[in-house]
Write a structure and sequence with these properties.
Blueprint lengths: L9 H14 L3 H8 L34 E6 L5 H8 L2 E7 L3 H10 L4 E3 L11 H12 L8 E4 L8 H7 L19 H12 L3 E7 L10 H11 L3 E9 L10 E8 L38 H7 L7 E2 L4 E2 L33 H7 L12 H10 L3 H14 L1
Parallel strand pairs: 1-2, 1-4, 2-3, 4-5
Antiparallel strand pairs: 5-7, 6-7, 8-9
Length: about 400
Amino acid sequence: MDVLKNKITLQAQEDIISESIRRDVRFSDVLLEKGITYDSLRYRDYSDVTPVGEKNETLDEKEKLSASIPAVSFFSGAGGLNIGFEYAGFDNLVSIEFNEVFCNTLRRNNPNKTVIGPPEYSGDVRNHEEIIALLGKAIDIKKPFEGVFHGGPPCQPFSVAANQRFNKDSDKFKRQGFDDKEKGELLFDYLWYIRTLMPRAFLIENVDGIANCDSDGKIKSALDELTTLGYNILPPVVVNAARYGVPQNRMRWLIIGTRSGKGIDLPIPNDYVTACYDTFNRSLENVENHQTREHTAESISRYMQLDYGARDKLGRVDRLNPYLPSKTVIAGGTKGGGRSHLHPYSPRTISVRECARLQTFPDSYVFTGATARQFTQVGNAVPPLLAYKIAMQIRKGL
């Protein structure tokens, strides 16, 4: 395989691991002494599979349509939905976000756009009067708003993965759903803005687990209320981003509504899932956010034994299979970064940029803050390519 051309031999690798342990010297320092990098290392096994020849679809290769439809972004995060809508010809006039690190990334990449969030504002959508006043000041928003709202309320209260990882030792182990005092009701705050300002169309995005938390039918009741106001609403749908060109298995729960009287359908999914093979065959020269972790000799010794798709139980990381979609890129908790997967060809965890590529962020998009917080931003985001395809459908419908 081509990926082995620049790898050292297994024997040389084992010698370096032994040397690091024997001398009690950091493994990264031993590599530096020998003039090699973590990408020079190898796994024991590389399945003999015919390389995938087709390139993945990327936003880097698409031309942005002219910004002709206004939009407001709620729960903007690092901007995944924003990017997709921008490429589809929407003008994101305002982004609303309460996390200052995320706000810094939004401002870094869109310095001429308005961001309602720290440090100047709270960015808390629960403060209805404040947000309405700031929207009026920024874009003189009026009811009905002749544009689109899009947003994904924080998903942690409804996420199985988040709660199993971060709450296993607390009474919050089970998903709190709408009972989460901090984030559980934010979906309904978002719906309040839709009722109050009546945008031409709206998109709601969340994890697929949210549906299982709606045992009392609160979401249905809220959507029924919008229907009485004249909205045509596509019933909640769960999609896998891997069937829309994203090289990652990522299940998302979506709702689209429009007051134009005409329903808007989701884009037609592919009849195949997108492998991550091409993602890891692209050059990483001259890209930002590609700092990789300096693993210990003991970690490399374990990682190198893994087959495609296998998990290192101690580090709880998985070696990706390049001939399948990546496993879901994980955001992590509020106090730390996400847990990135292992590179399919080099026994190391993947970088923020590699995670961002799995999420289909353009390479030109830069994430700010500490590396751990960059992982959080990438993992929290909606894949921009999925957002783009949904936004194109909304554009056609409008």
